[in-house]
Amino acid sequence: MHKTLGPGLLESVYEICLCHELQKAGLKVKRQVNVPVVYDNIKFDAGFRLDLLVNEKVIVEIKAVDDMNPVFESQILTYLKMTNIRVGLLINFNESVIKNGIKRLIL
Questions:
Q1: pLDDT tens-digit readout, 2-30
Q2: What three-state secondary structure class fits 7?
Q3: Residues of 71-103 as b/e, b for ≥16 C-beta within 10 angstroms?
Q4: What's the domain count of the chain?
Q5: Among 30, 20, 70, residue whose Cα is nearest residue 50
Q6: Domain containing 69: what range?
Q7: Are β-strands 102-106 and 87-92 bridged in parallel, bridged antiparallel, or unpaired?
Q8: pTM of the entire structure?
Q9: Which residue, 40, 64, 59, is CA-closest to 48?
Q10: Span 78-91, average pLDDT
Q11: Dist CA 59 CA 32 (whole Å)
Q12: Domain with 80 in it: what CATH number?
């Protein structure tokens, strides 16, 4: 997919194309999954949104940025903690070689 599209597009383009490719491979993928936040025993629906949730086991956070900010890793680690999911992928599609833009995070 990255070889065909290349870097420089919006995150939303990569998200929909990656979702399509994962579904073609037989995986169950949900896009833009709303996750409520529980704080002080109160459930707030205005929580956060996962870019992709694959097979209910992997969170995929998609970026298309020049420089990866350390807060992106913190963001996905927080998502993992709050959802009790153990594996996350942080993918930056704004790389000339996609393998340089993939970071796997595990709780």
A1: 989 999 999 999 999 999 999 999 999 99
A2: coil
A3: eeeebbeebbeebebeebbbbbbbbeebeebeb
A4: 1
A5: 30
A6: 2-106
A7: antiparallel
A8: 0.92
A9: 59
A10: 96
A11: 11
A12: 3.40.1350
List the structure tokens of 75: 């963001």
Continuous segment of H or E residues that includes residue 82 = helix 70-83
Q: Tell me the three state secondary structure of residue 22.
A: helix
Give me 39's structure tokens.
């704080």
Tell me the residue length of the chain. Answer: 107
Residue the block writes with tokens 């037989």: 26
Query: Would you say 62 and 18 are in contact if contact means Cβ atoms under 8 Å apart?
Result: yes
Task: Count how many Cα atoms sit within 13 Å of the Cα of residue 43 in the half-sphere of its side chain.
Answer: 4
40: its two tokens: 């002080």
28 exposure class (CB count in 10 Å sphere: 0-12, 13-18, 19+): exposed
- Spatial separation of the C-alpha atoms in residues 48 and 106, rounded to whole Å: 19
**8: helix, coil or strand?**
coil
How many CB atoms are located within 10 Å of the residue 61 CB?
21
